[in-house]
Integral membrane protein
Amino acid sequence: MKPREDRVPVHHDDSWGPLPSRPAYSLLIRFVLTVLLLPLWWALIVVIFLGFIAFGIVAEILTVIPGFEKGFLGLIDKFGDSVKMWPAWCVTLPELRHEGDAAFYRARVDKRIASWTAKELAAQKAKKAPPPGPHDIPVREYRGVGAGYVVEAARARDWELSHDRHSDPLRVVRLRRLPVTY
């Protein structure tokens, strides 16, 4: 049986395939909530970040306590890793307009991987360290084509799934560049 063009099989698990299209009314409600709540979300992130900075300035005297600075920087890193600028609940206008359009999502994935590949090759050509990885592609980028397509498109450009940070095909695909051999 020949695989459909918009669904490239990589794994036998259906979670690596395209996600089902969401109902239009649900997307419209989420889009309206995104327009109303996302600016408040970003303002909250900025306020919390400024609070970290203010506390850091005042807490400079506490750096005499062993481990305080390391713990504070670890807290900031954990905050940065757990808070997303584009939360999973938001729906952007392109997502609203192109829900279920495999060609749109294919182009998004290809563009993102091509951008990372260009950066990696530019760093390699300049004999500099490549951008740090692994590189994450969130589900909002590949919803219509599935995580399996992301892996296939990445393999075509010498990328593979990250081994140190595992992917969850229903949330994020984490890629790393294959080592360069001379």
Remarks:
- The chain has six helices and three strands.
- The first strand starts at residue 135 and ends at 138.
- The helical segments are 24-58, 68-82, 93-97, 102-125, 139-142, 147-155.
